[in-house]
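Table 4 source record.
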Amino acid sequence: MISEREAVIEELSKMPGVSEKTAEGMYLLGIRSLEDLKGRKGEDMYEQLRNRSDFFAEPCMLNQLKIAVKMASMND
């Protein structure tokens, strides 16, 4: 059976341009859906991930996080 974590990461990584690793990072930040991204900033999320000791935030993730936030704002 698939866990809640795996299901959320799978769903978030369906967004165009968002990798599974970036979706995992979003999960670690408490994001569970597009709705959770509304009002967030990609730059802030990237810095939060960079400051975590349990996650390596690759530079390309910044653009992916910006894309995810943009997708969420278009979903209004």
